[in-house]
Amino acid sequence: MRQMKIEKKYSAKKIFARITLLIIPAIAIGAYLLWHLNEYYGVLESQWATESLFLATGLIAGCLFYSFRFRFITTTLPLLLLLFIIGKIVSNIYTGEFTAFYAITKFYIFSFLFFTGWLAGWGFARLRWFPVILSSLIMLLQIIVISNTSDITAKKLVLAFAPVLVFSFYIVYTAELVRNMNEDEPNFSWFIVKKLLGFVVAAGIILLLIFSFYKKDFLAIEQQYGGGKSETQTPNKESLTKENKDGTVSNKKQMGLSGGRSSTKRLVFIAKLDNYFPKTDLPNPLYFTYDYYTKFDTLTQTLEVDSLMPSNDLFQPDPSKIPLYFTQTDSSVLLKSKGYLDKKVVSTEVYKALLSPKEFLAPATAFFCQPIAVEKEYKQQFKSAYRAKMMVSDLNSAYFVYNPAGNKVLENFQTQRFNLLRQISNWNNEDSAFMSYYTFIPKGDDFDSIRALAKEITKNATTPIDKIIAVRNYFLSTDETGQPLFKYTDNPGVPGLPSASKLNYFLFQNRKGYCAYYAGATLFLLRALGIPTRVSTGFLTMDRSTKNKGWYWFYEDQAHAWTQVYFPGYGWLDFDTTIPSTEQQQAPAPDGTPPITVQTALFVTHGKVIDVDTLKKRVDMSVSQMIYHDKTFDLKKPVTLNMDVSLATITRDSGEVPLSELKVGNEITALSFSDQFKNISLKDSNSYQEIVEKIPTPAPIDEIKIIDSTKEQQQIAKEIKKQPASLTKIIWIAISILALFILLIFSLPWLIFQWFNYKARHTKAIRQKAYWSYNAAAYYCNQLGYSRDEMSPTQFAKEKIDAHFKTNFYSFMLVYLKSKYSKEPLTHSDENVVQNFYPTFYKTVKNKIPFRERFSKFLNYYRTINFFSKPKI
């Protein structure tokens, strides 16, 4: 009898089923994973097909070998010894140092894959829980690979996880099906095919639901980590800006360290900056700031914005939501900037070419924004404009580190600044939370090496400013041959392994990079020295204009990142350590003529449209705010203004539009440059009622700006709903999907019983009721540990169930078998048995088994698979 069971267990039919249904799918998922790994790990040399062959050989050999009674340890140790001997032979065959290293590396890779396949084959043949373990390991491997990917899209996430999830569902289900297969089942092949088809349908529905449920999360991850790249950008390259759907350019909220930088030489904006060196007409350019990056994600090696950073002095209004010539100010940022020494107010005018209407950038620290009109002759080139005011330090300049050679004015200016800053020796009086935040550096070997380098670079420096200069000098230093130690390049490449630190690769090996590398490295070098530092992003300001002093043209490749250092009393000062790039200093074309003469709007109103006459070209608006000769009025009670718009330009953020686009209810700003508003005689210049009464009717209007408030509110709602993507969001989503899958697996037995239970209680037709009552009772007993095994249905009911629970299962089985196999009608007594059996049976069994025991046994989904894999009666 024992010999018969052994033959059954290791029969050719079962081994064939295991190879066909388990090993071949495992080979397929292994090949997919190897292909994916080859995309990221250069050491694998893109030989995924050959590697898959070795893995497949190990899987098949291990499964076949251990399908019989061979012991694991006594067979595995000789295999390892054999592989070791072959490795020694391979190393002796090749004599060249490089050739030998290459050959032995390939051998170890192939041996590892073969041995991994061998272990997996053993697991499939001998270990019942191996499919669950394998599924978890494969999911973990895929999470690690994806979490180290810099170019992430929703499509890539789905393609990465969908095959792994399908395989996990499949292998757990099918392994137990093969384990419990009954070779004597009539139409056995069709039975297996039917089960697998059912699985395919169920798995497809589950995957569809999962990816539909998490679609927003995948898209959020793509937006956050993929960078919102435009189709025109080079794949796998980082950009400090992103292109919006309307073709405009915006800032990104994170900055990764990739193998290359993508940028173009398109004009983004121009600016007039009223800042000059003291007592000269020499322009003193200032960097235009977008955002501050104070956090570093060690997993994705990405610098990120932290909206909760202490003393947030960033002023970020949306100019498109401010009516023309009205203003928005925030004086609180001046206090948060923590600077009060050697300060002055500087103004700038920004004209946007590709820059998004919503974006605001200006030198630090901005506190004032006023949208202004663009003159008609420039409207094709510049879509919108604004005026900004900033409180800037006399010590700040784009020339903070690098001076044009031979310019004595700039050299003296820099020397004076350094002498002033040498008076600062510590930050002892600063808030401890502020210092802790801006000097934070992660723990770990990678950052310990940066700490050691920082101490070595600055070992001879005494004051903070001298330490900063020492860091600058390190990036400017030369090697033993006199060549520059560091170089600027937009294509620095990446380490061979995706998990390697890109900052360490830049600092200690490659020493080539663009601004993000220099800024990130400087951030941690200075923080390691206890110097409060942050990274600022925006645009590099280059003074290329000789005709129009104070005007600066900003191209897309001037998007830039640099560090800012905090000095007590002086606040945050720009400190740019990026090696100069000659490409960034040269414009793609000569800078054009800026709008030097700017008209002043004499009359500006803001309100809503109440009537539009396209024939007469008249518009009536309800005015809530008004500017007259630079004096602003907030009307307590709205007044109606009739306007002549026959000569007016109608615009949106997207550009000029026809008058027909103007609708009742639109929020608009109307302005006029007409001389008719110049000489209006007023008794009381503070009375808006008198102004409204005396202005011409209809009022001549030169420009109307439509503010789409509904669209803006929707955008605000979207921004509020957007959560900053977690640094480990990919991992958590994968874990939650896996947890959902596990929950589904363990709850499946209970869900199936609920279906049987419902059908048994609510089916009206007596024969059908008998069928469902039998299935519900048999399934319930099976889940509680009372399976039929080799017993007949009546023997199982009488000897195992009725004897233990004192039920009438046997009497019911006689009626059920009669209803199923006999053509005789059921008697009234038989019908009563069917009607009354199941509720009483269920209650009796339930009351005799404690809840905790029932709960634990219903978690065993192997019993469920076993129930459906047995022959049916």
TrEMBL record:
Residues 507-579 form the Transglutaminase-like domain. It comes from the Bacteria. Keywords: Membrane, Transmembrane, Transmembrane helix. The chain crosses the membrane at residues 15-35, 47-68, 75-94, 100-120, 127-145, 157-175, 196-214, 730-753. This is Transglutaminase domain-containing protein. Residues 227-260 are annotated as: Disordered. Pfam families: Transglut_core. InterPro entries: Bact_TGase-like (IPR052901), Papain-like_cys_pep_sf (IPR038765), Transglutaminase-like (IPR002931).
